[in-house]
Design goal:
Number of helices: 4
Number of domains: 1
Distance between the termini: 24 Å
Strand order of the largest sheet: 1-2
Order of helices and strands: EEHHHH
Length: 119
């Protein structure tokens, strides 16, 4: 069963939540911010979060890196792997129409909005 991001479906006997965030051909900054908020809620509630990109375009990895940055205020560094968030900004691969510093500011703003929302 899939529902909009704002809706939450309890699964596995109430042990988790399923969020469906449909993203078509790339990802907008708006959708990235929505995904970060889902990740922040999962982190805050100590829930496991499964990210999956059906198309194999590394969007899941990018969202993971964005959530990590929102929580830790630093970029995820894994041995032997590129940080897909920092790779997809205008100064590198142009997925987002902003430069890395601007994207970092957007992520911090998103986290602050989430914190103020009282979720």
């Amino acid at each position: 069963m899939t529902e909009k991001l704002s809706a939450r479906t309890e699964i596995m006997g109430g042990k988790g939540s399923f969020f469906f965030l449909p993203i078509q051909r790339g990802i907008s900054l708006e959708n990235l911010c929505k995904a970060i908020k889902v990740g922040l809620e999962a982190y805050e509630r100590n829930l496991h979060l499964i990210l999956h990109c059906r198309s194999g375009l590394h969007r899941s990895e990018m969202i993971k890196c964005a959530i990590y940055f929102a929580v830790n205020a630093k970029h995820l560094q894994e041995i032997g792997k590129s940080n897909m968030l920092t790779e997809n900004v205008q100064d590198k691969h142009n997925m987002f129409p902003v430069f890395q510093k601007e994207l970092e500011e957007i992520i911090i703003k998103t986290k602050n909005e989430y914190d103020r929302s009282g979720k």
